[in-house]
Design a protein that fits this description.
Blueprint: H1 6-26, H2 30-42, H3 46-49, E1 54-59, H4 65-80, E2 84-89, H5 94-107, E3 111-114, H6 122-129, E4 136-139, H7 145-149, E5 155-159, H8 162-174, E6 187-194, H9 200-215, E7 219-227, H10 232-246, E8 252-255, H11 258-270, E9 280-282, H12 288-295, E10 302-304, H13 307-322, E11 330-332, E12 336-338, H14 352-355
Parallel strand pairs: 1-2, 1-3, 3-4, 4-5, 5-11, 6-7, 6-8, 8-9
Antiparallel strand pairs: 10-12
Bound molecules: beta-D-galactopyranose.
The site of beta-D-galactopyranose has 14 residues, from helix 4.
């Protein structure tokens, strides 16, 4: 039997999910939605009328594993709609990204999709773009609601609720044989590898993974929280140091994403520790390498950060802006828990090329 790849599986479910989400969000008050659509339609670009559009995309950093998947999806889906797509690398520098936005404004794009370098700069980004009237789809890094409110009907956010991913990480630990307490001392002792500190994904994953343990009545002990900026190499170094410093005290390594979990895994194995036996390790994203590690028993679990679902929703929102339809402020895509039992379903298929 042919295995369906994570990507094919997600594509099928995401299209259904995103359509449902967009319909549901817009479905509350049809008369006001219709009038908004009419007013928005009157300002729709001439490019839309001719069936095409120019879309500018700003990614915070190309050297980010998850955003690499996400931007490839965006390019594929938007191009399939016949749009012309330009994607810029912000190189993790807000000034660089701001220059790229200014260039897009000079070129006169129809919609901007923005993954901000600094979420705290989102208001400045909106203030820069709003005089042009160009709609903005913020992705992946959630700005304050006040930012979206400041550019009504022209600005939305597509993302996933990071609290859910944190909760799932905690639940993955609770599902282990020892419920996270390997040494049986009544306390779950852990370290945490965190993404960039101003990112709500990092904040919520850090908070809600532990909250899930506490809500289940567990006592926890945090040895240290490392600031690893989503980065594999930084996490590898920090976890190596942590293992040298704390040794067997560490029962769980929580990582806010899989890139850091893969770095942690290298150090765990180099230190002669065995995931599932004397230490637990969880991440988020469901990168192919991490899912393989879950299948092989080298990671306790991960959480699917649905790039396909989010890119599908962002593409839908972009299309609606291009066509002058009413767009909601928020589009949410669910996370999915990836466990030792279901991980094989999320592996890329070997024969993916043939299946296309
Ligand atoms: C998160 C993702 C991380 C990283 C980050 C960038 O949602 O889990 O791996 O890509 O976004 O903002």
């Amino acid at each position: 039997m042919k295995m369906i790849s994570r990507r094919d599986f997600l594509k099928a479910s995401a299209v259904v999910g995103a359509t449902a989400a967009l319909t549901a969000c817009g479905g509350g008050d049809s008369s006001s939605a219709a009038s908004t659509a009419t007013s928005a339609a009157s300002t729709a670009s001439s490019a839309a009328a001719s069936g095409s559009a120019n879309i500018g995309i700003c990614i915070y950093q190309f050297a980010d594993n998850f955003m690499t998947l996400y931007r490839a999806d965006l390019e594929e889906y938007l191009t399939a709609l016949g749009y012309s797509v330009t994607i810029m690398d912000g190189k993790n520098d807000q000034n660089t990204q701001t220059e790229q936005i200014n260039t897009f404004l000079q070129q006169g794009v129809d919609v901007l999709i923005i993954n901000p370098v600094q979420t705290t700069s989102a208001q400045t980004i909106v203030d820069t773009i709003s005089p042009s009237g160009i709609p903005i789809v913020f992705i992946n890094r959630e700005p304050d609601k006040s930012v979206l409110d400041s550019y009504p009907e022209k600005c939305c956010y597509v993302g996933a609720d990071a609290r859910q991913s944190g909760t799932y990480q905690g639940e993955l630990i609770l599902a282990t044989d020892t419920e996270g307490d390997i040494n049986g001392d009544g306390v779950i002792t852990y370290i945490m590898c965190k993404g960039d500190p101003e990112n709500i994904d990092a904040q919520y994953r850090t908070e809600y993974s532990i909250k899930a343990l506490e809500d289940a009545g567990k006592t926890v002990n945090c040895l240290y929280e490392y600031l690893d900026n989503w980065d594999q190499t930084l996490a590898q170094q920090d976890v190596a140091n942590a293992l040298a410093q704390y040794g067997d005290q560490i029962e769980v390594v929580f990582c806010n994403n899989d890139a850091m979990a893969l770095g942690a895994l290298q150090s765990i194995e180099q230190a002669g520790r065995t995931v599932g036996t004397d230490i637990y390790l969880v991440g988020v994203d469901a990168l192919a390498e991490a899912v393989q590690a879950v299948v092989d028993g080298r990671m306790t679990g991960t959480v699917l950060n649905d790039d396909v679902g989010q890119a599908t929703a962002a593409t839908e929102a972009t299309k609606m802006y291009v066509e002058g339809q009413a767009v909601e402020q928020y589009y949410w895509v669910d996370y999915v828990k990836v466990t030792p039992e279901n991980a094989a379903d999320y592996l890329p298929a070997d024969d993916e090329e043939e299946e296309e």
